[in-house]
Amino acid sequence: MKKITDYQHKKILVLGLAKSGVAAATLLHELGAFVTVNDQKPFEENSAAQGLLEKGITVICGSHPPELLDEGFELIVKNPGIPYTNPLVAKAMKMGIPIITEIELAYRISEADMIGITGSNGKTTTTTLIFKMLEQASMHPLIAGNIGTVASEVAMKATAENQMVVELSSFQLMGVDQFKPHIAVITNLYDAHLDYHGTRENYAKAKANITLNQTESDFLVVNADQEELLEWVSYSKAARIPFSTQRFLKEGVSIKNGRIVYFGEEIIDTGDILLPGKHNLENILAAIAAVKIVGVGNEAIQHVLKTFQGVQHRTQFVDEVHGRKFYNDSKATNILATQSALQAFRQPVVLLAGGLDRGNGFTGLVPYLSGVKALVLFGETAKKLEEAGKKAGIQTIIHVDNVEEAVPVSYHLSEPGDVVLLSPACASWDQYKTFEIRGHIFEQAVHRLKESQ
Description:
By secondary structure, this protein is α/β, with parallel strands linked by helices. Helix content is 34%, strand content 21%.
């Protein structure tokens, strides 16, 4: 870790705790800043705040009072989940107080080069593939960000021998200043999180921030099949490595005669890849581009692609029960992710879907439901999804209370050879704290079902 003095004796407000807030406050305290933490959760229920208080950090809990800014803070480190419309944040912006996210701190202290991955879909799978390929090649990777340990915690332990592989959300990328990954990867760009960003333009700008500070000595791996995305990153100074699943690229990563090719070099036959689905080919091409830049050999790449079964909660095979294969795609929190999951299967599908109502409809899902023989729906969006199912001509549509109840119902609606797919197309927050919890409950229900048969 770099022992920087940028924050020494500065009054800094860490806004919002969770893992990233605790890590940021701890790091800044160690770097000599005068840290105040402000979290909405009451102090008596807030073990994280209590732990920081014991370290000598000032803690204010229960709300985000705008008048707190009268104390003269020079910097705010904001939890990515707190919107910029929050009254305290809005006041800070008017006052001209710089606002960053924890990823900026991680970058400033890291001795290791960073490979940063963002995009609307495929971030987690691409991040995991890159990490595993680097690991197979003995390049000492460390994984961080949304996918695992908070980036600044990992950066504190990283050395120049490591490669930090970091999954980045648009929320995090809105709060960067100097942040500059050596390799930036953008998997794709679709409508997502518009309830937070307000407009597609704001969302796209946030994603493009991953290459904002890159120089000619850095690299940008980008989806060449999306013209709009290419326009958003056209200002980038980084060396561009495009990838495409739709056309052959002489300079870049693409598919020719059923084989993945990197700048004319054949890497692997697509038939040897274990990970299912056309959408995963995008992730694979992006990962190959990133690791080839740092010198990973083809044997390491091939080994990972022949053995990697998928990220947990992302089109993850759970188990087979009397000929029905159950897949957990709980991380599909938007329509596009569910579209991709449905395209991965040729077998008849019983689809489990539903969740938080963000105000959108599901018309865009209708063309992808042709292979769905039955819908099992739950959560706030169940009625909207039923409308989409009827438009697609699905005759069997069942409403249940939750994911746990959906599993045995889906089993009885299916036959040997069918796929039972949890791919909600919605966030989990109406019923479950995280999509991981939703996915775990699904997996547990599948295992109980198998034991009962």
